[in-house]
Design a protein that fits this description.
The chain is 47% helix and 12% strand. It contains 23 helices and 15 strands. It has an eight-stranded parallel beta barrel, surrounded by five helices. A seven-stranded mixed beta sheet has the order 1-5-4-3-2-6-7. A hairpin with a 5-residue loop joins β6 and β7. About 3% of the residues have low confidence.
Length: 571
């Protein structure tokens, strides 16, 4: 699956993890307290190094690495490591067993927590390497020329500090369109292909060409194939450079092109890419890496920075999407509350995973979480209201019913906020979009989670990544249903999922009735060029053709028949 557009070619550099598993039953000599301190010192050092790399990298990588640093010193993990050492296990084996236990819990959870399982593997290996006095896992001996980095999966710590000029492309066996590899590759502007089974079997040094648009990975490509691909890429760049100004179709139908932004560090790139505003301003960066919620002043500064970056442009702030799928240190989970109640009722014991919801993606997250802790939402709305203008809009994540939408709208209007919307990420919300639209001013479709819930397929699991293909006709049906309801209500329906970053899909989404498109900054130029080359009628014909098919591949091919300029643009 191509997840970051472009052509990359060069020698393969295959990254393998070389940290050995500590022997089962390995013990230590000396005092338990000394062994525990050795383990704690290694955990602290790894956490510090991850945070330092995040500070140096900035942007998406900073948020990801700071979250990893918190995991390295997670209180539950620390207690488990200390307990295992008290039972006689040496520090490396205690770390291995503690992390593996939590990794297995998270891997079975799916969603955001499921993705953290890979992070735990990386942290575990780094701590064990440190305890053994070995070199940390990572890139060593890479070619001097730009290379194609191949791995089973890529740890953010390995890739965060790489420069675009070092890497021709990323290719991984695991991952999906919202994996860390995909997110960081798009932020760097490097082509990337994920879920490519057998990729680590490519010999080191062999020439590889990866197409981050189609997902095609060629081993030892012919010189003519490389030349043709580069010519197409050059034509694409020229076409994108020539398309300027606000987003619109060839016949003048306006389609504002907005940016998905994960924090203030990404504002400059969004402005430079010609974004007309922000369609999704994620606010989790303010909350995820701290034991206390951010102050009113800190939140206000962050929201004001977004508004000031786009004077006269729309800025849509999404309220905190935290809870079960993005744990917040300062709020208890529903599962931990249940565990505490069970303990208070004289339950014999609670398992180490009692505070993890059995299926957190289907648990208490987003607006559900904020309804249980309304003071968190109230503080966030107060900060947004402090910088409010007619161009600052607010929307809630994970809204399932009309009643939830009405509750959120009342909360916002009580703070004097006028532009209130909700995200459509749950099939129930798409099916009954008219109920939600009765209370709010706009809706925005998050196609990533909508696909996850519609197909019962974990968005982080490579084995089911095909079900996250945005060309799935069933997903297009849900988008069309929502857009029709919005049109009937006379209210906007935007798209803020990564599907909008595909130029062909962007045309289809407009044909389905999307009023705005929001995406990573790096995709704006290609989408702008694709829309400018086709009329609204062509977009509608492409949408109808795609929905009439039964497979994603057929839907994509059928749509492109009505979008002939894509081939000329090299898209």
């Amino acid at each position: 699956m191509g997840v970051s557009p472009g052509i990359g070619h060069g020698p393969a550099y295959v990254l393998t993890v070389s940290v050995p598993e500590p022997p089962k039953g390995a013990t230590y000599t000396g005092e338990a307290d000394q062994e525990k301190e050795r383990a704690m010192a290694a955990l602290r050092q790894v956490a510090g190094e991850l945070e330092a790399r995040g500070n140096q990298a900035g942007g998406e990588a900073e948020e990801i690495l700071k979250a990893q640093a918190l995991m390295a010193e997670d209180p539950g993990l620390v207690v488990k490591v200390r307990t295992l050492i008290d039972r006689g296990l040496a520090a490396p084996r205690a770390v291995f067993e503690a992390f593996t236990k939590y990794r297995d819990v998270l891997a079975g959870s799916g969603g955001y927590l499921g993705e953290r399982a890979a992070d735990l593997n990386d942290i575990r290996d780094r701590v064990i390497a440190l305890l053994y006095g070995q070199a940390m896992p990572g890139l060593r001996g890479a070619p001097a020329e730009p290379y194609v980095l191949v791995a089973r999966d890529l740890a953010p710590a390995d890739t965060a500090l790489l420069a675009k000029g070092q890497i021709a492309a990323f290719v991984t066996e695991e991952g999906g369109p919202t994996s860390h590899t995909a997110i960081l590759a798009r932020a760097m502007g490097v082509p990337a292909v994920v879920a490519c089974r057998g990729a680590t079997g490519i010999p080191n040094g062999v020439r590889v060409m990866a197409d981050g648009t189609s997902g095609d990975v060629r081993v030892e490509p012919a010189e003519s194939d490389v030349a043709d691909a580069l010519i197409a890429a050059t034509a694409r760049q020229a076409a994108m450079a020539s398309a300027r100004g606000p987003g619109r179709t060839a016949d003048g139908h306006p389609v504002p092109l907005l940016a998905n932004v994960g924090g203030p560090a990404e504002l400059e790139a969004a402005v430079a890419a010609g974004a007309e505003g922000i369609g999704l301003y994620r606010t989790e960066f303010l909350f995820l890496d701290r034991a206390e919620p951010p102050s009113l002043e800190e939140q206000t500064r962050a929201y004001r920075a977004a508004v000031e970056a786009f004077p006269g442009g729309k800025v849509v702030v999404r309220t905190l999407d935290g809870g079960a799928d993005k744990p917040l240190a300062f709020l208890p989970t529903a599962a931990s509350d249940s565990a505490a109640s069970a303990s208070a009722s004289a339950a014999p014991s609670a398992s180490a995973s009692a505070s993890v919801e059995p299926n957190p993606v289907l648990g208490e997250r987003g607006l559900r979480r904020l309804r249980r802790f309304p003071e968190v939402l109230d503080a966030q709305l107060a900060a947004i209201a402090a910088v409010a203008s007619e161009d600052l809009l607010v929307m809630a994540p994970m809204v399932a019913t009309g009643e939830e939408a009405a509750w959120f709208a009342r909360s916002c209007r009580g703070r004097g906020l006028a532009g209130v919307g909700v995200m459509i990420e749950i099939p129930a919300a798409a099916l009954r979009a008219r109920d939600l639209l009765a209370s709010v001013d706009f809706v925005s479709i998050g196609t990533n989670d909508l696909a996850q819930y519609a197909f019962a397929a974990d968005r982080q699991l490579g084995a089911v990544s095909a079900l996250h293909d945005p060309w799935q006709p069933a997903l297009l049906d849900l988008v069309a249903m929502t857009a029709r309801a919005a049109s009937a209500a006379g209210k906007p329906c935007g798209i803020c999922g990564e599907s909008a970053a595909d130029p062909a899909m962007a045309c289809v989404l407009v044909g389905l009735g999307a009023s705005t498109l929001s995406m990573g900054a790096g995709a704006l130029a290609a989408v702008r060029a694709a829309l400018a080359a086709h009329t609204l009628t062509q977009c509608r014909l492409a949408a109808d053709a795609a929905r009439a098919r039964t497979t994603p591949a057929d839907a994509r091919a059928a749509a492109r028949v009505h979008l002939p300029a894509l081939a000329h643009l090299g898209l």
